[in-house]
Design brief:
By secondary structure, the chain is mainly alpha-helical. The chain has one domain (about 30-95, about 105-260): Methane Monooxygenase Hydroxylase, Chain G, domain 1 (Up-down Bundle). It has helices spanning about 5-10, 10-15, 30-60, 60-85, 90-100, 110-120, 135-145, 150-160, 165-170, 180-195, 195-225, 240, 250-255. α4 (about 60-85) runs parallel beside α11 and α6 (about 110-120) runs parallel beside α7 (about 135-145). The protein is globular, with a radius of gyration of 20 Å. The N and C termini lie far apart (about 60 Å).
Amino acid sequence: MALNYATYLKIPELLELQHEQSDPVEHDEMLFIIIHQTYELWFKLMLHEFDKVKGDLSAGNLYGSIATFQRVRTIMKTLVAQLDILETMTPMSFTSFRARLETSSGFQSSQFREFEFLLGYKRPEVLKYHPEDLPGYEQARQRLAERSVVDHFYDFLEHHAVTIPAALREKDIAARTEPNEEVQDQLLPLYKSRPDLAILFELMTDFDEGQQEWRYRHVKVVERTIGSKHGTGGSPGVEFLKKSLFQAVFPDLWAIRHRL
């Protein structure tokens, strides 16, 4: 049979992946499943795109980096917008099928954990919430042991005569990104003298703002839906999520704003 729209995209298989667990079936469970499956697809794409941008940054490929950051910034805005759809589900609607989630929890999203580690928000301790037999566990551990996108950004800056402090190059690979004044002092003249680089830096900041906005909106959706309860599967819930708010991916780009 010739390849067509349905077979290329595997539409029949895709549409068979939504199975409600409630009995009798609660209407909003379908919404809950599709929203989260869609998020996992977007996470897959962003991991794919950031694997590309890491190579572009290390190679000093300015225009490739710009193109990819434009894309991931737009994807991030889409993730935020999807929360508007999820918020049409009331707390009572969620409660009607919440117990049927049993030990499953969005906190177990291995792809999102990969995403955090890739961006430099490395917290090895969060893996304790991921059973070792959970699909994607090993991929998350691998991301923890890989250089983050910020490390590749340092490579890019070196292409433009920025001296990266030895302490940053020699830090524990599993340590989270921290701001550095030496890097900031060298970024500032690039911002002022290289408008082409400034375009990239602003796109990176746009993306960073978007991921912080998503975290905030996600926390508020969870708080609005379950309040101070623990999450499903024993996950820590709202208070733990709040600790991740306003964690910048590129703290040095934020730190110099008042000096521009």
